[in-house]
Amino acid sequence: MQTLPKLNANILNIYVRPEIQLLLYCASTKRDAAKTEQIKSLIQLPNLDWQDVISQAYKHGLVPLLYTNLNTICKDDIPKEAINQIRHLSYANSQRNLVLCAELFKILHLLQEKDIKGVPYKGPILASTVYGNIALRPSGDLDIIVQQQHVLEFKKILISLGYQPLVELTQREEIAFLEAKSEHSYNFFHDEKKILVEIHWRVSPEYTSPIETKHFWSKLKPFPFAGITIHNLPLEDWLPILCVHGSRHRWERLIWLCDIAELLRTNPEVNWDYLIQVTTELDCKRMFFLGLFLAHHLLDVTLPVKVLRQIKADTEVVALSSDICQSLFTKDNHNPKFLGRTIFHMRVRERWQNKFLYFQSFLRWLMIVRK
């Protein structure tokens, strides 16, 4: 594999301030001598804004990786107040992840008792399988995928545990909700534990991507987790799903790119022809390419030449990557309004019928707002 050029103050012709450069160099479980030296150089800058570093790290889900790298490389060279704050946030994340992990174990065990396959999505499982440590990736809630026919049975299990739906629905409304193309998760909250559980039967709303459980359920394999055996996808099959998720949220958090980068580093023997074929069939190839291209430029991920050539051939991917970087690197960046997000989602789809499907969702939203 070729060695990529190291990060500098410009990515895709967009200036990257030192605080973000530091985060990018620390956004990995692996570091070489060159990255280590870059980190040491950056923390010596007299005008480095540590509160901006910490704020951006928290926003992008990078506090655990930032603390792990700084604590290993140069903890004595960092202002005491800053390193203590980063340490506190990192420890709090570890404690939260342990709580979520225990709750996930309990829920998966109850699903197994009902003979329901539940596939954890992101969260502690992703941290364990990709990062090798549940403490290295923040988990805000628990996302579990089941087949659509098991959603209501899963709901009963959550209610028995003290969870309540965020939105109360009548039986008729509930059926319509599960059938709606605009929906993909049924959300429940435990007020005492402060835990949100999202039941997924699709990866995202159908107007974002058509990926459903039927597209990958036959590929599930047993995976050991916390003393039980759960069902999980082979690592490379998570790549399109993670790229769809990141694109759905316009790659607003760097941790989603770290997921892609870490997965590729831990699973180098990727069947690229298979993934390109699958993403083409499901009309999410541009989302897939966008995630890869951003990880390549921002996190030093090495891609095969033939894959990189295909990505660059799609000029829309290059243009979208530049727009996303502009948002990520601007200090006081603001997320685009609904119309801007709609245009992005239309651009990231390749087939006109799917662009139109997303545009229809915008028109429905507009009609609701005008009422």
Overview in brief:
56% of the residues lie in helices and 9% in strands.
Name some characteristics of this structure.
371 residues; alpha+beta; Beta Polymerase, domain 2; 5-stranded mixed β-sheet; two-stranded antiparallel sheet; 16 helices; 9 strands; 56% helix; globular; disordered N terminus
State mean pLDDT (0 to 100 scale). 89
Low-confidence stretches: 1-7
Shape: globular
How far apart are the termini?
56 Å
Output the structural class. alpha+beta
Described by strand count, sense and barrel closure, the largest sheet is: 5 strands, mixed
- Main CATH class of the domain at 101-232: Alpha Beta
State the share of residues found in helices, binned by percent. 55-70%
What fraction of residues sit in β-strands? Answer: 5-15%
SSE ordering: EEHHHHHEHEHEHEEEEHHHHHHHH
**What is the number of E strands?**
9
Protein name: Nucleotidyltransferase family protein
Pfam families: NTP_transf_5
InterPro entries: NTP_transf_5 (IPR039498)
